[in-house]
Design brief:
The structure is a homodimer of 351-residue chains.
Chain A lengths: L16 H21 L6 E4 L2 H9 L5 E5 L4 H9 L3 E5 L9 H7 L4 E7 L11 H11 L3 E4 L15 E7 L10 E5 L25 H12 L3 H21 L3 E3 L9 E6 L4 H10 L19 H5 L4 H5 L1 E5 L6 H27 L1
Parallel strand pairs in A: 2-3, 2-4, 4-5, 5-6
Antiparallel strand pairs in A: 1-7, 6-7, 8-9, 9-10
Chain lengths: 351, 351
C-alpha cells in the first residue's frame, strides 16, 4: 500500500483540493513513519536531512553537555561552536563510549547527552539500550544522531531517547530529506521560522515527494536486510584479512551491519582509494563530509589511533544490493593493489 | 544541453568517481545558475527552499532594519522574533514601499533593508532598480525575498542587491530546494554547521537531484513566458471585472505577470474558495503558508484594507501552462458562484 503522487506534488498548505490531497499524503506519511518507530505522529518532523535535524536539536542547548570527540561534523562542529560546556568522553580503540563513563560524567547541570547510535566511519555502535536506560533513570535527555544507524539495523526507540535525527539517503531514500524525532513534550526552538508547516516547528513548503520517498524507503527495511549485509560484511572482512597480511579492523566494539574500516599497514589510504576507484571499487576514508581534506580522519585520531595507521585506513560500506561476487572482486582487486603499493614502498625505502 | 543523472545521485563529497561525477554535476549547476543571474559561482548557495535562505540571511542581523509589514511569514516572523530594531514602512493600497520612504527611514545604524521583489499575495512589485540604486548609494545591504518574483518575470541582479533567496517550486522546479545568493564578500553565519558542503557555508549532503531540477527549471524561463502569463492575467482581470460587478483588484502598484488578488464585495472569500474548488478552480486567499487560518490576510490588512474587503478577497495565480479557455471557464464559474452567493446574502439580509 504505497502513498502515491498522481502528478507533481501540490502544496500541502493550500486550501484547494490539490493542496488537501497533498496534505492527506503528508499526514499518512507522518503517521506511517511514526508507527514504524513506535512514536506519535506529532513527534515526527520532516527536515532537509540529518544535518538540519541535528542543528535544530543542538543549537538550543545550554549548560553542560556530554558527548565524544568522534561524532559526525554536524554534531562535533555544532556543539563546539555553541556556548555549552562540553565533556567529550574518550572512546579509545573500542570506538564508542561506555554507559559507565557517561554516568561518571553526569553533573547536576548536565542538560543533554549527545551520541551517535553508530559511528559513520567505523560503524561501532553504542549500547543504546543501556545508554537510554541510564538517561531515563537520571532524567537527562539523550539526543541520538541516528544517521549512520537507521537503515542498517532495526532501531528501537527506548523511552530514554528524547530525540533522534536521520537522513533518508542513508537507506536508499532521496537526498535532501530527513526526519527529526522529538519526544513530546520536549520543546526546541525552530531553526526556520515563517509558515506554520510541521506543526509550527519547521517553516517552509514541505518536500512532499522527498517525504513520501523517505517513508517508502523506511517501509522497505527489514531484519533480513540487516542479516544479508552483516553476512556480506563478515565475508568481506574474513576474505580481506585472509588475503592481505598486516591489516587491522578499526573499532573493537560491535559494529553496524554494513560498515568496516580497515587499516592496511604501510599503505597510504588516499593512494589506495584512488587505485581502487580506477579499478571500479568505490570506498571512502573518513566521512564523505570531510573527504578532500588531507588530514587523517578526526574520528580515528580521536580514538587514539596513530596518524600513520589512520592514514592507511579506508572504509568499505556495503548495501543490500551488493553480492558475494562483488565482494570477491573487491577483495581480489584490493589484495593486488595493496601488494603493489607495499612492494613499491619497500623498494623506495631500501633504495 | 542538460545536466543529467545517469542513476541515483551520488554524494558530491565522496572521493570516488561516482562522487566526483556528482561533484562535477553540482559544480556545473552552480556555474550555470550563477551565469543565469550574472553572479559568480561562489555567490550561489543551494538550500532546502526560500524559508531556509531567508532565515539564513535574516537571523544574523543586528541593529536597525527597514522592512514592511506585508512581507512573507518567513521574513515577517523571523525579523519580529529577532533582536533587531524594526522599521516597518506603511505600503498603503499601492501595495509596495516607495524608495523615498526607505530613504527617509535610513538611520546611521541601519544594518539592512529587507523587501520582497514582489508580494506573494498581491503580486505588487517594488521598484527594484530604484531601491537597489538607493541602497548601493547609501552602502546599505538590500536583502531581497525573490521567492514570488523569480520565475514570473526576468530578475536583474542590480549592484545594490546584497542577497536574494528563491524557491525552485515557484517556477515548476522541485519542492525542497532553493537558492541563496550572497554577494561576495558579504558574510553571514551558517544556519547549519557540520560538513564543508556549499563552500563551508551550508552543511549537509547536497540534494543533487533537486539542485539539477532547480537549474533546469531556471533554464526554461524566458521573457516569452512572462508575456504569455501577463496576457492571460490581463485577460482574466478584464473578463472577471466585466462579468462580475463590484470587484476591486487589491494592490494599485505594478504587479508580476501571474498574480491577481481580487475582492468580490459582499462575498465571503473562504466560501467562494470552497465553491470554486468544488467546481475545479483552485485559488487561494492569503499565502499557502498561512492558509487554514481563519483570520483575514495579514498582507491585505497591513495595506490598510478593511477586514470585510480582505475577507472577500481571493488570489488567482496563473502558470504558463494555463490557456485562454481555462480562463474563460474559470471566469464563467466564478461569475456564477459570486452571483449565487450574493443573491443568498441579499435574501438573508432582507428576510
Amino acid at each position: 500500500m504505497h502513498l502515491e503522487l498522481s502528478g507533481p506534488p501540490a502544496n500541502p498548505s493550500s486550501a484547494h483540493s490539490f493542496g488537501q490531497r497533498a496534505k492527506g499524503l503528508l499526514s499518512k506519511a507522518r503517521s506511517r513513519t511514526a508507527a514504524y518507530f513506535g512514536a506519535k505522529p506529532e513527534e515526527i518532523f520532516f527536515t532537509s536531512g540529518g544535518t538540519e535535524g541535528l542543528n535544530t536539536i543542538l543549537r538550543s542547548l545550554k549548560g553542560h553537555v556530554i558527548t565524544t570527540a568522534i561524532e559526525h561534523s554536524a554534531v562535533h562542529h555544532t556543539l563546539r561552536a555553541s556556548s555549552v560546556e562540553l565533556t567529550e568522553l574518550p572512546v579509545g580503540l573500542w570506538g564508542a563510549p561506555q554507559p559507565a563513563q557517561v554516568e561518571e560524567a553526569i553533573r547536576p547541570d548536565t542538560a543533554a547527552i549527545v551520541l551517535s547510535a553508530a559511528n559513520g566511519e567505523t560503524g561501532v555502535k553504542i549500547d543504546l539500550e543501556a545508554m537510554a536506560a541510564l538517561c531515563h533513570k537520571r532524567g537527562i535527555p539523550l539526543l541520538i544522531d541516528a544517521v549512520a544507524a537507521i537503515g542498517k539495523e532495526p532501531f528501537t526507540l527506548y523511552p530514554g531517547i528524547a530525540s533522534f535525527a536521520l537522513s533518508a539517503h542513508k537507506f536508499h531514500g532521496p537526498k535532501g530529506v530527513g526526519l527529526l524525532y522529538l519526544r513530546a513534550p520536549t520543546s526546541f526552538p525552530s531553526l526556520f521560522t515563517g509558515g506554520a508547516q510541521e506543526m509550527g516547528r519547521r517553516a517552509g513548503t514541505e518536500n512532499l515527494a522527498g517525504i513520501l520517498g523517505l517513508q517508502e524507503a523506511l517501509s522497505l527495511l527489514s531484519p533480513q536486510i540487516t542479516e544479508k549485509m552483516l553476512a556480506l560484511r563478515m565475508y568481506l572482512e574474513q576474505s580481506l584479512t585472509q588475503a592481505i597480511p598486516d591489516t587491522t579492523i578499526n573499532g573493537l566494539g560491535p559494529r553496524i551491519a554494513n560498515t568496516t574500516n580497515i587499516a592496511f599497514h604501510g599503505v597510504d589510504g588516499e593512494t589506495l582509494l584512488m587505485q581502487l576507484d580506477l579499478a571500479g571499487v568505490a570506498v571512502s576514508h573518513g566521512s564523505a563530509c570531510s573527504s578532500g581534506s588531507l588530514e587523517p580522519s578526526r574520528v580515528l585520531i580521536n580514538m587514539g589511533i596513530d596518524r600513520k595507521r589512520a592514514r592507511s585506513s579506508i572504509r568499505f560500506s556495503l548495501s543490500r544490493f551488493n553480492t558475494k561476487s562483488d565482494i570477491d572482486r573487491a577483495v581480489a582487486i584490493t589484495a593486488h593493489i595493496v601488494a603493489q603499493l607495499r612492494a613499491l614502498s619497500n623498494r623506495c625505502h631500501h633504495s
